[in-house]
């Protein structure tokens, strides 16, 4: 168990190293010269050369990668071209907003997904089941930005129940979290349904039924806890999907998180910021999967026994 | 043929099949059907105040903020989306097949390294990686297709890898090997044919993902560049007017949803037909 955990930690460290190598190579392969981007269009060749020396861009590739890694360990993600400030600080300032949105969105996904998945499994093959399956397909086929604009149009413009955009009160988080959560719930519903169907066919459920327990008790006390286990791994995997969605949803709702930061950076071709957000997202994905792997045996004794 | 017959009996799959056929047909016949040129800014396409026109008999789906006919732009946009869908996804499935089959067949350093690289790529959020690549490479239609391909091959590679690993262990491969068949013959004559169903399923499901990714990139302004119409950049161009002219956002949005949904439904039905063990599962 401890050995497995250690192995997993080493794997995670190696993946993070690979992630850093890929982002570094992408920056290096950049057709635009970073020194030129910082100096501006009208700078002299001498100024550009000075900046290049200052940034260490005249050093060999491996030396540059080493200093890039050293920087990453100290939280140095480079400097923004447009805002002339530290990318690490910009991201750190906006991370809390994204985490709030993420927590709310995943909560909507899980609650809705579990509810619909159980409903579909219990009514397997019936109308409800087919409707839930169809809805989950629609959810994963809908472009997030269109869903965001639709919710905005119906609930903010027409009905005026929620604010158009911004941040600060609980009302602000409702529409962005619903956009991410409702669309993403489809995957959870499918998975819970399939897990529930497996569990409901097992002998111990038949035993519970034979003992005369009520359907509700069997479904919620006996079957559901076992069917919920895959959800933990699912959330770990889902973080990747989520970080992608966050860019679009934060852009539409003006939510001041790292997604909006990336979106603003796209307009100004501010590569260090886009790269920083990508790096932080990759870190979130890798850590999310690691945490899911660590939690699974804690929750499920069967995995611990293996 | 059998696949098509089975599909026609399922309402959802049939619906998907009809929509896919319709979109393909409309895209091919766009020059014949489109009432106006997609780029023509018409004088009578705007109100006196310069606002876009809602749907009417003259402009079936209304006009956009520059006085262009939305219906014509959507028809030509279908071409963009389908071309990107086919090219990007074709390349993605090819790369995925190649890397998956090689890493599944080859033991040792090469196979392991290829799979570790695939794992590494999975640690990046697809959209953000695509954004980075698109921002680095000043997008054109073909660049967007390549960017999407570079992001989307990963999942195919993973699945092909798992299937190849299973196939390599099977007796008929062992028999071939003991008869003296070379690696090339085993790979291309015996393993590849078994992966065709997987490639077809992911080739179809992948088009849905591609259409969505292209639309999202274009919506963020780093996909297909105007004036070339794409479903995503039609929304990108008019999103700030969406309160006054909601049709400019929601009609293209509905078209994207319907197309992605249909490719997903057809792909899912194909998976059921080609791989009966997965039937009725998530």
Biggest sheet character of chain A: none
The rough form of chain B would be described as elongated
How far apart lie the N and C ends of chain A? 9 Å
Can you tell me the overall shape of chain A? flat
Structural class of chain A: mainly alpha
- Helical coverage of chain B, percent range: over 70%
Radius of gyration of chain B (Å): 22 Å
Low-confidence spans of chain A? none
Mean pLDDT of chain B: 83
Largest sheet of chain B: none
What's the multimeric state? Answer: heterodimer
Low-confidence stretches of chain B: none
Count of strand segments of chain A: 0
H/E series of chain A, N to C?
HHHHHHHHHHHHHH
Q: In percent, how helical is the residue content of chain A?
A: over 70%
Q: Whole-Å distance between the termini of chain B?
A: 25 Å
Structure explained in plain terms:
The complex is a heterodimer of chains A (306) and B (282). Chain A has helices at residues 2-28, 34-39, 45-55, 61-73, 87-122, 127-141, 144-158, 170-200, 203-210, 215-227, 229-253, 258-267, 271-299, 301-305. Chain A is mainly alpha-helical and 306 residues long. The mean pLDDT of chain A is 82. With 282 residues, chain B is an all-alpha fold. In chain B, α4 (70-105) runs parallel beside α7, α5 packs across α7 and α9 packs parallel to α10 (231-238). The mean pLDDT of chain B is 83.
Task: Please describe the topology of this protein.
The complex is a heterodimer of chains A (306) and B (282).
Chain A: H1 2-28, H2 34-39, H3 45-55, H4 61-73, H5 87-122, H6 127-141, H7 144-158, H8 170-200, H9 203-210, H10 215-227, H11 229-253, H12 258-267, H13 271-299, H14 301-305
Helix pairs in contact in A: 1-13, 5-6, 5-8, 5-11, 5-13, 6-8, 7-8, 7-11, 8-10, 8-11, 11-12, 11-13, 12-13
Chain B: H1 2-8, H2 11-28, H3 30-33, H4 70-105, H5 108-122, H6 126-136, H7 141-168, H8 171-178, H9 183-219, H10 231-238, H11 247-274
Helix pairs in contact in B: 2-4, 2-11, 4-5, 4-7, 4-9, 5-7, 6-7, 7-9, 9-10, 9-11, 10-11
């Amino acid at each position: 168990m401890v050995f497995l955990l250690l192995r997993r930690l080493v794997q995670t460290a190696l993946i993070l190293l690979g992630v850093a190598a890929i982002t570094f190579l992408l920056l290096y392969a950049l057709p635009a010269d970073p020194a030129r981007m910082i100096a501006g269009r009208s700078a002299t060749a001498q100024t550009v050369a000075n900046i290049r020396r200052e940034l260490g861009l005249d050093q060999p590739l491996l030396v540059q990668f080493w200093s890039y890694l050293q920087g990453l360990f100290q939280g140095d993600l480079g400097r923004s071209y447009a805002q002339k400030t530290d990318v690490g600080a910009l991201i750190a300032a906006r991370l809390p907003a994204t985490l709030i949105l993420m927590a709310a969105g995943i909560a909507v996904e899980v609650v809705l997904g579990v509810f619909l998945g159980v409903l579909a499994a219990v009514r397997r093959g019936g109308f409800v089941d087919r409707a839930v399956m169809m809805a989950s397909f629609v959810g994963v086929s809908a472009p997030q930005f269109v869903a965001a604009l639709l919710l905005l149009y119906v609930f903010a413009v027409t009905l005026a129940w929620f604010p158009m955009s911004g941040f600060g009160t609980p009302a602000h988080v409702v529409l962005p979290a619903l956009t991410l959560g409702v669309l993403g719930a489809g995957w959870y519903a499918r998975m819970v349904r399939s897990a529930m169907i497996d569990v409901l066919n097992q002998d111990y459920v038949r035993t519970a039924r034979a003992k005369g327990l009520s359907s509700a008790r069997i479904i919620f006390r006996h079957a559901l806890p076992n069917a919920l286990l895959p959800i933990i791994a699912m959330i770990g995997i889902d973080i990747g999907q989520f970080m992608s969605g966050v860019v679009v949803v934060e852009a539409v709702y003006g939510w001041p998180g790292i997604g909006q930061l990336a979106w603003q950076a796209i307009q100004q071709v501010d590569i260090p910021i886009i790269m920083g957000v990508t790096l932080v997202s990759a870190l979130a994905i890798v850590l999310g999967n690691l945490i899911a792997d660590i939690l699974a045996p804690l929750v499920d004794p069967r995995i611990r026994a293996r | 043929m059998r696949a098509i017959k089975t599909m026609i009996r399922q309402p959802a799959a049939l619906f998907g099949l009809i929509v896919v056929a319709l979109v393909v047909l409309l895209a091919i016949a766009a020059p014949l059907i489109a009432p106006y040129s997609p780029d023509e800014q018409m004088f009578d396409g705007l109100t006196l105040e310069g606002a876009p026109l809602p749907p009417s008999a003259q402009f079936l789906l209304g006009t956009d903020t520059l006085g262009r006919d939305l219906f014509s732009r959507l028809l030509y946009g279908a071409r963009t989306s389908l071309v990107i869908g086919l090219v990007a996804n074709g390349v993605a499935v090819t790369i995925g097949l190649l890397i998956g089959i090689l890493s599944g067949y080859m033991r040792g350093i090469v196979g392991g390294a290829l799979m570790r690289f695939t794992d590494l790529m999975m640690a990046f959020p697809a959209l953000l990686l695509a954004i980075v690549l698109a921002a680095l490479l000043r997008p054109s239609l073909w660049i967007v297709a390549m960017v999407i391909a570079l992001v989307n091959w990963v999942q195919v590679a993973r699945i092909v890898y798992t299937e190849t690993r299973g196939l390599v262990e099977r007796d008929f491969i062992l028999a071939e090997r003991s008869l003296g068949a070379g690696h090339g013959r085993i790979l291309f004559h015996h393993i590849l044919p078994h992966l065709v169903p997987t490639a077809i399923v992911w080739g179809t499901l992948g088009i849905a993902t591609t259409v969505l990714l292209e639309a999202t990139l274009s919506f963020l302004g780093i996909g297909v560049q105007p004036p070339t119409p794409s479903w995503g950049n039609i929304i990108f161009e008019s999103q700030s007017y969406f309160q006054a002219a909601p049709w400019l956002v929601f009609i293209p949005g509905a078209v994207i949803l319907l197309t992605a949904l249909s490719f997903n439904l057809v792909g899912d039905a194909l998976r059921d037909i080609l791989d009966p063990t997965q039937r009725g599962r998530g």
